Amino acid sequence: MSGDGSDHAKVTLFDGTTVAVRPICPADLEALKRFHLRLSQQSIYLRFFGIVPELSHDRAHYFTHLDGVDRFALVALDPARPDEIIGVARFDREPGTAEGEYACVVEDRWQGRGIGLTLTRGLIEAARVRGYRCMFALVLPENVRMVNLLKDLGMPERVRWVAGVQRIEVDISAREKRAVD
Fold first, then answer.
1. How far apart are CA 131 and CA 140, in angstroms?
2. Does pLDDT of 92 surpass 60?
3. Is the pLDDT score of 2 beyond 50?
């Protein structure tokens, strides 16, 4: 991500579209609730492992009021409507450790364009600065996009099964392996 001097970074997606990415903030509470309402039931199920028709005020407050150290999130914003969130990636530190749980969700009409990967890479940079060495995601087996996103990072990973869910651990202390052209 290349910053423009503010807390927003401009990123270019696979299709050439430019979107703004920035840390989530308390003022995003209502935008996050609107974002959730635009998600398909399938996207909600894959993210929350159940049907969550709307985010309650308390849950939206929890997701938008972060300390920036142990709990941090990035949002991607719709270029046509910059007050609307189109993707969120977050981490929550496991208390007393250098690892955190990771989650990401992208609005359905924006999926497959690189937002999830872009947000995840930015989140990894932020996590490293905050002393994290490992991030893990709990992923349903049918969530192929998330499994592929984590593989696309090119970082060492380990997969374990916990109660029918994949726990994919990514060693973020290692640098990404990128192909050299």
1. 28
2. yes
3. no
Instruction: Indicate the DSSP class of residue 4.
Output: -
CA distance 77 to 94: 28
Q: Looking at residues 78-102, what average pLDDT do you find?
A: 97
For 43, 96, 105, 106, 110, the CA distances from 117, given in Å and listed in that order, are 16, 27, 11, 10, 12
The predicted pLDDT at position 5 comes to 37
- Strand spans (E) along 78-173: 85-93, 99-106, 134-139, 157-162, 165-171
- Residue pair 21/44 in contact (Cβ under 8 Å)? The answer is no
Give the Cα separation of 139 and 106 in Å (integer): 15
pLDDT of residue 175: 62
pLDDT in tens, 31-45: 999 999 999 999 999
Give the count of beta carbons closer than 10 Å to the beta carbon of residue 126: 18
